Structure formats: C-alpha cells, structure tokens
Amino acid sequence: MPIAPLPGPHGLYNVSVMPRFLLDSARVGWQGAYFTDIDGAREGVVDHAHERYCIVRVMHHEGHRALGQRDWIEIPPGFALCQPGDEQRFEWRSGGRSQFLFIDGGRAAEVLGDDRPLRSSTPAPIPGATLPGLIFDGLWADLAQGSPAGALVGDSLIAALVAHLAGVRDTTPRASAARASRRAIDLIEARFAEPIPLEQLAAAAGLGPRQFTRAFRHATGRSPHQYLIQRRVEHAQLLIRQGLPLAEVAVQCGFADQSQLTRAFAQKVGTTPGQFRRTAGHG
Question: Is the pTM of this model over 0.90?
Fold first, then answer.
C-alpha cells in the first residue's frame, strides 16, 4: 500500500522559535518523506523525540548545550542522522542555514524490502563530494526548478540514500537490468505526459525501488527522471513544429506550466521554446 507524503513543516517541527522555510517538498509530495531548507533562528530550544528518521545537514557552525547543563558544544558543518525514538533536548545559539530530510520508517522498509535500520553517516565538511551531500544537492535543485518530473526525482534520490545508509549493495545483473528497464521504458512511452510514481515504474520492471533506479541507469545511461524529461521535451518539439501555443504544449507534455517547459526545454535543447518556434517557422 503506497505511503502518503509526510506533512510539513509544522507537522514535523517542535522548536521554541520556528525557522524561516526557504524551500520545501510539500507541493511535490514525496512518498513517506519531507525535505526543507531553512534559515534557523539565532537561538532557541529543541525538546522533542523523533518519530521518523531525520537526516540533518548543518551548513554553518552552531553551538549546542544540553538542557540543564552549563557547557556549550561547537557543532561543525556536516551531516547527522537521528533515529526514530531519539530524543533531542538542547539549546542552540548562532543558528543559520540547515537542511532536513525526514523519512518515515515504513518508507525505508518499503525501499529496502525489510526492517533493517539506517545507520548514522559520517559527518563531512560542506560542501563535500559525499553521497549524502550530492543527494541533498539534487533534492534542492529539483525543488528549486519546480520538480518538472513530479515526485520521481525525489523518490528516486531518497531510495538511493536509504540504501546507502542501510549499507545495501546492488547485485542486479546487467542483462536482467536491461530487460527490466525495457518494461519501464514502455510505460514511460505510453504515459510520459502523466505523473509516474517511482513505485509504478519499479513494479513494471519487476524490481524494488532501490534496484530499479540503478538498473535503469545501467541500461540506459540515464536516470528515470532524465529519460522522462527527455521524452517530454522531444514531444514538445513536435507540437511546437505543429504550431500549438506554448501554454498548450506545456500541458500536453506534462509540465506544470509554460515556465517549467521553458526551463526543461532550454536545458535539453539549448534554446527556448519561443526561439525554437521561430526557427521552425511559426514565430
């Protein structure tokens, strides 16, 4: 049974001074997960227990002091993982920018196929070339661009992060990956203008979510969302050549609006839809 997106931001935060939310995933609706980029208050108090996994990327130096204690501890930039049930009871000072990814335990189990726990990642400097850092960067970039592939990017990256934190290795043979990916490609070709959840693509391929994303990249050289956006842009080129208005092209190709079409089109084609239309003789 599909796991619903997590509520946010107030459904996940319990602090004395709420942060300023710069960007979040509420509109996209990732399965069993919620991401936000925040500008934290200069000081405040945290006093709660986590109900879910919480992966924190601290992007500044911050002071923490356990409630009832005198001494402050300096927290450097890096990553930390809180387990479900972990209690956090401290004051903070010198707050600043941080990123949080909450993952429901049921979602992690769905990705992994079992109930093994996620383990704490080693703190790393920011910016860094660690996998968690790259995944957080990818989540942020997708949200900043308006998530043109819907929830597919976030769900795929989160599945990869869950597998990484659980220490899971990919063992899908390349021949099997190619056959499985062909079935997912057929689904994308039939429904590229619709939101296609990661679970549906994985089910079509006969794989779990974490195996599917790696198998698809092995077989095609691209991630599922890159393939989906490429097919949408290719169809957009066809419709533009036919003289359809750009707003209608965006709708028929599965983009949220014309501006989202323009961004994706420019990235893939190297020119805007309007410029492409003039070149095609419809300007």
Answer: no
